[in-house]
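Bug report (template v2)

What were you trying to do?
Predict the complex of my protein with nicotinamide-adenine-dinucleotide.

What happened?
Run completed; filing so the output is reviewed.

Input:
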Amino acid sequence: MTIKNICCIGAGYVGGPTMAVIAQKCPNIKVTVVDINESRINQWNDPNVEKIPIYEPGLSDIVKEARGRNLFFSTDVDKAIDDADMIFISVNTPTKTYGIGKGMAADLKFIELCARQIARVAKDDKIVVEKSTLPVRTAEALKNILDNTGNGVNYQILSNPEFLAEGTAVDDLMNPDRVLIGGDIDSPEGKEAVEALTDVYAQWVPRERLLTTNVWSSELSKLTANAFLAQRVSSINAMSELCEKTGADVNEVAKAVGMDSRIGPKFLKASVGFGGSCFQKDILNLVYIAKSFGLNEVADYWEQVILMNDHQKKRFAANMVKAMYNTVSGKKIALLGWAFKKDTNDTRESAAIYVADYLLNEQAEIVVYDPKVTEEQIYSDLDYLGSRSGDANRQAVTVVNDPLEACDGAHAVAILTEWDEFTTLDWQKIYDQMLKPAFLFDGRRLLEPETKKKIGFEFYAIGN
Ligand SMILES: NC(=O)c1ccc[n+]([C@@H]2O[C@H](COP(=O)([O-])OP(=O)(O)OC[C@H]3O[C@@H](n4cnc5c(N)ncnc54)[C@H](O)[C@@H]3O)[C@@H](O)[C@H]2O)c1
């Protein structure tokens, strides 16, 4: 079976880049990305490709090449479903904010809506691919909904979790470590569906990196991968606090530990805490699944990764207050960076939001600069926390387009995202414009400490 027409439901951080790369690498496949969010689709269709809604290095060039050729963005979800032989579901699966499992379980209402829409519209056999990160055994529920419409359409459900990291999405999609495809490999139809998807990826990914498993292993592997990655960050962050008390340097510890080939060097960078839309929600989901099977020790074990991360964000902000003579009330503090990591405009669960909120509770005046995040997004992130009114957030927080302007007249500067451009700022000029003593808090271990101390900064870095 050869796939000719793909539909992807959800034009977000996963659906957009993933489909752009599939379209670029498979010119013979028509790829249509649909979304109910009209303004997002309009942005994807903006004649100026620099204005697409998601910032990822290299993405706009790919969109420029494929859009209008075999890559299309649309709000006509029904038509795209009807036309497609393979449908990717790439919608959001946030943590539930209500009812059973509130604050832990994944909210699958968007997934279910997709399944019902597919069931209503489809007239011929479809392969449905779970691209969203889902609790183990979701495919069963999807199949149930799809099979119970009684219109004679046959569905094959595949799990194909996405492992891209924001900020390096294009590179990750072009050269994935592996592509995981879970399917009903015991039936001929299931096998055929798995092969059809494998053939799509094989157009640019070496066959030995295309991994086939049963559906449940595939669903659970994605949650496991995120839990392991987040665990490494929390592990090194736990050590960063101990380093600060003992005179050890967390970068040196990380290097020494990471050179052990059994451990490896990646994801051992101490920071103000991990953010992003996935780690927290996926681990909470894992914890919820473990609890629902009565596996309380398993649940507690993984929950500690989240607790450590919350602690790291809070302790960074608390250290700032403590260093500044136990009060930041009325003091101007410049936050450099708002995105949850560099090279993305995504701010979901960014540590910066929580640090800002803590400092605002201490009555600080905040000025934010981030090269890719809009003012509107920053206010919306703070408003979402509900700690104070929207007006109060707008009164206490200013957003500027220039890092030097942010730091002008500030008592303190905090680096919260590791944007490369912060390393080459004119730190002498920043120091000259600040109130003295001038505090510089590096939440990302981005800056070289000695030169900053030599300029005169009171310099604090995580884990040192
Ligand atoms: N962001 C990441 O780095 C990443 C990486 C791997 C996996 N994932 C997983 O991929 C999934 C999507 O994540 P994302 O970051 O792209 O989310 P996102 O919020 O950026 O995008 C999801 C999109 O789906 C749309 N949508 C929701 N319901 C819809 C419906 N019924 N019909 C049409 N469109 C609908 C929303 O409007 C939104 O634009 C999640 O399950 C996430 O866990 C994310």
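What did the reviewer find?
The first helix runs from residue 15 to 25. The two ends are 58 Å apart (CA to CA).
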